[in-house]
Design goal:
By secondary structure, the chain is mainly α. It is built from six helices and no strands.
Length: about 150
């Protein structure tokens, strides 16, 4: 979720007229660590005058920064605006985080079922099945049914 917030901050900086290098440098201070180092690396390379395609290729090694680097390289080649694309990327990251949280909650529900079953199954057998079997056995053995 913090990655999506960092992408929103980059998008807001770009919408305010900042360059991608300045936006990446500003957001790197508050971004989560794998993304922060990737943003710092890209911003530093751009500040040193590196070609944007080359600068953002080094960021593509980070899994969180890979989509951002792909967008930055495409924007550098075509001159298109990145603000809307980064906003969409943030929305995708939020959906992915929500899906991950739902999956973890569902897994927890399944994992809780095992110990509960192990605790309640013996009680069900002792209090529900054993008295019925004893009652039936008493009736059958005393000659009531046969």
């Amino acid at each position: 979720m913090a990655v999506a917030g960092a992408f929103d901050l980059v998008s807001a900086c770009l919408r305010s007229g900042s360059t991608l290098a300045a936006a990446a440098s500003a957001v790197a201070a508050t971004a989560p660590e794998p993304l922060a180092s990737a943003l710092r690396r890209g911003a530093h390379l751009l500040a040193l005058g590196a070609d944007p395609v080359v600068a953002w290729e080094s960021v593509a090694s980070d899994p969180e920064g890979e989509a951002l680097a792909r967008m930055a390289r495409r924007s550098a080649r075509s001159g298109s605006s990145m603000a809307d694309a980064i906003t969409e990327l943030a929305a995708e990251r939020r959906v992915a985080a929500e899906d991950s949280a739902v999956a973890a909650a569902e897994r927890a529900g399944v994992l809780i079922g095992g110990p509960l079953g192990l605790c309640f199954l013996p009680a069900f057998v002792c209090l529900g099945i054993v008295p019925v079997v004893i009652g039936l056995a008493r009736t059958v053995l005393s000659g009531g049914l046969l």
